[in-house]
Amino acid sequence: MNHLLLILTLLITANVNAKPLEQQNQDGDEHKVTQLRQDFKLVAYVENFKNIMAEYVSSEYRHLTINEVEKVKATLEEFLHNFAKDLKEILDHPEESRKFVENRYQVDDGISDATFEEIKQRVMHEFSDIGDETANEIVYRLRRNLLWTRQKLDHIIEDSRRANVANS
Q1: May I ask which residue range the UniProt record assigns to the signal sequence (predicted)?
Q2: Sign of the C-alpha dihedral, residues 158, 163, 164, 168?
Q3: 76-107 pLDDT, tens per residue?
Q4: Closest alpha carbon to 101 in 145, 80, 132
Q5: Helices and strands, counts by H and E, the chain
Q6: Which of 40, 72, 111, 120 is most buried as measured by Cβ atoms within 10 A of its Cβ?
Q7: Is residue 16 predicted with pLDDT exceeding 50?
Q8: How far apart are CA 99 and CA 90, in angstroms?
Q9: What does the pLDDT average to over 153-162?
Q10: What is the 3-state secondary structure (H, E, C) of 75-86?
């Protein structure tokens, strides 16, 4: 629900403050237009991964209580927030994010590196102004956030299964 509010706020703000594109270019606001497009792409990317995680929960377990569903929603919202923050940080300050590359740990998530290489290629295609290192950092942080979120969701699902068995 919060993500819809964010998108609506962005759209309303863009419409209220919008000028015709020609006038924006004349005013030298081309950078702002580019930034808004990039921010919109970021929201769409993060939202897509959040939806993938929601589908993961639905496929793994269908018997969640209302309280457990709320925990899942909160976990997915936290993923949305964390990944959006990481993306914004990487794209706004790529030189700062690169200094952490040496301190990375291997993300052991059981997903093939080829899957994330494909994601990297899509990111580089979508954001044509980023380089290989920046794309690697985006994919690394995505992978780290997905693993953390999946672990939390697995814990919620497992607790639910145990409670369901205990109540049977």
Answers
A1: 1-18
A2: positive
A3: 889 888 988 888 888 888 777 666 555 566 77
A4: 132
A5: 7, 0
A6: 72
A7: no
A8: 11
A9: 89
A10: HHHHHHHHHHHH
